[in-house]
Design brief:
Shape: globular
Number of helices: 20
Strand order of the largest sheet: 4-5-13-10-11-12
Bound molecules: pyridoxal-5'-phosphate
Radius of gyration: 20 Å
């Protein structure tokens, strides 16, 4: 299968190069030239299969032309050591799709681990003998998932850039205590500065001549596409209960990788009636839905910090998927936005009335469903993208409680934190990378 660039000014490439390069030479995002379809009978049979079996079916359909079947099955099995259960809230047909049972308790674990394994497979197959360097800028959650996904993978170095004092202590531990092939770099600046450094590195011809650089953000096809697995798994679970007939799926969104994976699942044949893009105050996408105009702008800080994105990178993929047709897009995707006071109120109310603890991101997803007013025959599913304890400071403030930290998270906090401290100037960063 060939992958073309959304900007269409760069040549199409095979999966191997799309994964190794991440971004096309014209700065566009790679898109598969065809989206394979899974037939109705197979979709109906999913309810009798395990998560791994379901993911394997989806992976073979998508990547099967470009990779031998057994290697792909091994990568899927190695990625999915955990489940993504669908949990009923016992109210108005609303279910939570808990995506936080992976190693760093974030949905990004699925894509990060899968990409690490696939990249490593391609490096070996291509006989690339120099090390591949993964650069990742993080406002908190991506760094942990990527660092742990790539930890100990031979031939790959990971550099995690994060803004000093702006990530939560738990998140910081998830990528500063690992060592081995993971280097944490604390930047004296904001998240935007970290992202700018990574972008400058990709554009620096000299640096790229000397080092093989790639990205593990959701611009990489191997990172965002595997996220389609758990949409199919959720469908299978709901189908077992006879609840999958008319599915409305609400996705807390920042860079829109997760939602885009859902749209791909839908194109592959997964029956979804509607998607809802749930945003915090960073609502450029909602504005696009309402007006047809896209006005990227600097992000503002909110309680749902992983969604503080003012220019979502996967927006280009959504436009491309629907041939830039605003009517088609609004026909399948609705949207809503929630300010911090509304997020707080939702977390408190859902805890009080249904005994379910939401994180600030999942709260946007839940509330967008609650406000959608589902019909009796519809099932609402929101993606709970992180364990609430990952945002403990915020959730504690909202609830006035001291919420429990799961053992898996606690384990990271006992390690010794190590990071390199750098300023936000590119020359300093470049000099560090080259030595
Ligand atoms: C990354 C993240 C999001 C946003 O996901 P996108 O794919 O960037 O839209 C939402 N919630 C949490 C907890 C995240 O870490």
């Amino acid at each position: 299968m060939k992958y073309y660039s959304t900007n269409r000014q760069a040549p199409s490439v095979g999966l191997e190069d799309a994964v190794i390069k991440s971004l096309a030479a014209d700065r566009g995002l790679y898109m598969p030239e065809r989206i394979p379809v899974i037939d109705r009978d197979t979709i109906k049979s999913l309810k009798n299969r395990s998560f791994r079996e379901i993911a394997d079916i989806v992976a073979q359909k998508f990547f099967g032309e470009d990779m031998d079947s057994q290697s792909l099955t091994d990568i899927v099995a190695d990625t999915l050591s955990f489940d993504t259960p669908v949990v009923p809230l016992y109210i108005n047909n609303i279910y939570s799709l808990e995506l936080f049972h992976g190693p760093t308790l974030a949905f990004k674990d699925v894509g990060a681990r899968f990409m690490a394994r696939m990249l490593s497979h391609f490096i070996l197959r291509k006989g690339i003998d120099r090390e591949v360097n993964v650069l990742v800028a993080t406002s908190g959650d991506t760094g942990g998932a990527v660092a742990n996904g790539f930890l100990g993978v031979p031939g790959i170095n990971v550099f995690v850039l994060y803004p000093k004092g702006k990530v939560s202590p738990i998140q910081e531990c998830q990528f500063t205590t690992l060592e081995r092939n993971v280097t944490a770099i604390e930047i004296d600046g904001a998240f935007d500065d970290c992202q700018a450094l990574v972008k400058s590195a990709f554009m620096d011809a000299d640096l790229n001549g000397r080092m093989q650089l790639t990205s593990a953000n959701s611009i990489n096809v191997a990172r965002f596409l595997p996220q389609a697995f758990y949409y199919f798994n959720a469908y299978a679970q709901l189908d077992r209960e006879g609840k999958a007939g008319e599915l409305i799926i609400s996705v807390p969104s920042g860079n829109f990788g997760n939602l885009t994976a859902g749209l791909f699942a839908c194109r592959m044949g997964l029956p979804v009636k509607r998607f809802i893009a749930a945003n915090n105050s960073n609502d450029v996408f909602l504005e696009y839905l309402k007006t047809g105009k896209y006005n990227p702008r600097p992000s503002v800080e909110t309680y749902a910090s992983a969604m503080d994105v003012g220019d979502p990178s996967n927006f280009a993929r959504i436009l491309d998927l629907f041939g830039n047709d605003h009517r088609q897009i609004t026909g399948l995707i609705a949207g809503n936005r929630y300010a911090d006071d509304e997020i707080a109120e939702t977390v408190r109310r859902v805890r009080r009335e249904y005994g379910y603890l939401l994180d600030p991101h999942g709260a946007c997803g839940y509330q967008a469903l609650a406000d959608y007013s589902l019909k009796p025959e519809e099932t609402g599913l929101f993606l709970e993208t992180a364990h609430p304890a990952k945002f403990k400071e915020t959730v504690d403030t909202i609830l006035g409680e001291d919420i429990e930290i799961p053992a898996k998270l606690q384990a990271f906090m006992s390690g010794e934190k190590k990071s390199v401290k750098l300023g936000k100037d590119f020359d300093g960063f470049k000099a560090f990378l080259m030595k």
